[in-house]
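Section 3.1: Structural characterization of target chains.
Under the original work plan, the team committed to producing a structural model for every single-chain target entering the pipeline before any wet-lab resources were allocated. The record below documents one such target. The sequence was received from the expression subgroup and is listed exactly as submitted; it comprises 198 residues.
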Amino acid sequence: MRLKNLLVVIILSVLSVGLLSNAHAQNGDSKPLTDLPMQFSATAFGDAGVMAGKSFSLDIYITAWTTDQQVKDYGSVLKEKGPDGLVSMMEKTDDVGRLSPTGFVGSGFRFATYRQTPNGGLHIVMVTNRPMSFGELYRSGRSTDYQFGIVVLDVDKNGKGTGKLAPICKIKFDKKNELEIENYGQKPFRLENVSLRR
């Protein structure tokens, strides 16, 4: 299943960087909404497959923003070398954040970017090359082609909102040279009760 609402956000985010410096939280905090570090809490709900009707709490940490040049470099590597090249590049990049389900250490993210929304909030995209177990790599099943995990948050000027968590994805350019994101197996988790904790 393709996540059509995510198809171009990674590339388009760099185009709106000039709009971002004025985003401020309106909850009594005079700091810009994009000030780091950031911590969001959320509840993830499964809508299909074995996770349908199930939920869990998680925290999302952002410690750095991916630069405009890095966004362009990632796009170029994906076009020229494909997903394997992008994974290799990410493996050499420091974490810029972390997603941690309650009670677990979680996984680091290598890419985090944002753009301001008309309501004064933020549209945040985080991407990483997902960790794979030895067993998964040994079996070399279809899932090994889905090398990325993606988190998308849409928060208002108070840092509250919703989002999506797609833990197993494929990212590539299609024959029309358009960015395509394909989810493995089931629909993304729906993130509700997203709230900025600082």
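Helices lie at 9-12, 68-91, 134-139.
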